[in-house]
């Protein structure tokens, strides 16, 4: 029996107290010829795994991150940034849905699509202090970001003998964003303009560069997935306790 330990390294896991989700699936591959395995078996395995991941995500949604501190550069550097966010709330990430999974019988080519639904990120307080060459960056206030229709499309090749994923390709898509930020440069009219600009331009940016972004991240994500797919080594058997060896002296009387 080959036991696969699947580790979901989500984007939020970096911040949410380094929480991650660990699942285990038992897949019996011993004695199987990789060329004769029905790909639908693995499609069902992936679907079952995804359902288990979503079930655990629902227990963590919404997530609250008490404090985020970002400190980049020194005071004398031309580019520096200090950002503090308190009580960041992320909700809706458990609405993720695997809407398509297909593994072809020839070559085990993999295609999938994951819809993220509606995700909202709310910061009741942020403080910004930085410099971009000669442009000062500062302010404090709130921001509320709502992303609608985000999706991830992917393809690659499944190597079941490993098991591993090869030649992973990704593309990110966003249909709609709505950003409301206050307090940027302590200027509310400017904050409103920035909010509208980001809301309108970000989906277009993702439409033009979502595939390029996927290319940049595909290698990292493939390495993470393959590392998680490595079977756990079988635990070494515990040593059996040894009975104490005793010598007995026998005295014979003549």
UniProtKB/TrEMBL annotation:
Signal peptide stretch: 1-18
Keywords per UniProt: Signal
Its Gene Ontology cellular component terms are:
extracellular space
Name one matching Pfam family: JHBP
Q: What Gene3D superfamilies is this protein classified in?
A: Haemolymph juvenile hormone binding protein
Specify whether Signal is a keyword of the entry.
yes
* Record InterPro entries: Haemolymph_juvenile_hormone-bd, To_sf
Protein name per its UniProtKB record: Uncharacterized protein
Instruction: Give the species.
Output: Ignelater luminosus (Cucubano)
């Amino acid at each position: 029996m080959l036991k696969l330990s699947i580790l979901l390294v989500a984007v939020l896991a970096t911040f949410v107290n380094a929480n991650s989700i660990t699942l285990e699936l038992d897949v019996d591959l011993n004695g199987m010829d990789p060329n004769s395995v029905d790909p639908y078996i693995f499609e069902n395995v992936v679907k079952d795994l995804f359902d288990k991941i979503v079930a655990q995500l629902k227990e963590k949604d919404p997530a609250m991150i008490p404090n985020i501190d970002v400190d980049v550069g020194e005071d004398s550097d031309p580019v520096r940034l200090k950002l503090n966010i308190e009580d960041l709330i992320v909700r809706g990430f458990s609405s993720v849905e695997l809407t398509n999974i297909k593994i072809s019988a020839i070559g085990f080519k993999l295609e999938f699509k994951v819809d993220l639904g509606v995700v909202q990120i709310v910061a009741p307080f942020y403080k910004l202090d930085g410099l971009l060459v000669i442009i000062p960056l500062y302010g404090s206030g709130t921001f509320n970001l709502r992303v609608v229709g985000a999706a991830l499309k992917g393809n690659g090749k499944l190597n079941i003998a490993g098991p591993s994923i090869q030649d992973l390709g990704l593309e990110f898509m966003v249909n709609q964003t709505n950003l409301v930020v206050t307090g940027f440069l302590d200027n509310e009219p400017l904050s409103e303009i920035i909010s509208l600009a980001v809301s309108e331009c970000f989906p277009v940016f993702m439409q033009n560069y979502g595939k390029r972004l996927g290319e940049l991240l595909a290698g990292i994500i493939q390495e993470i997935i393959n590392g998680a797919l490595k079977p756990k080594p079988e635990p070494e058997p515990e040593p059996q306790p040894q009975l104490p060896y005793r010598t007995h002296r026998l005295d014979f009387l003549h």
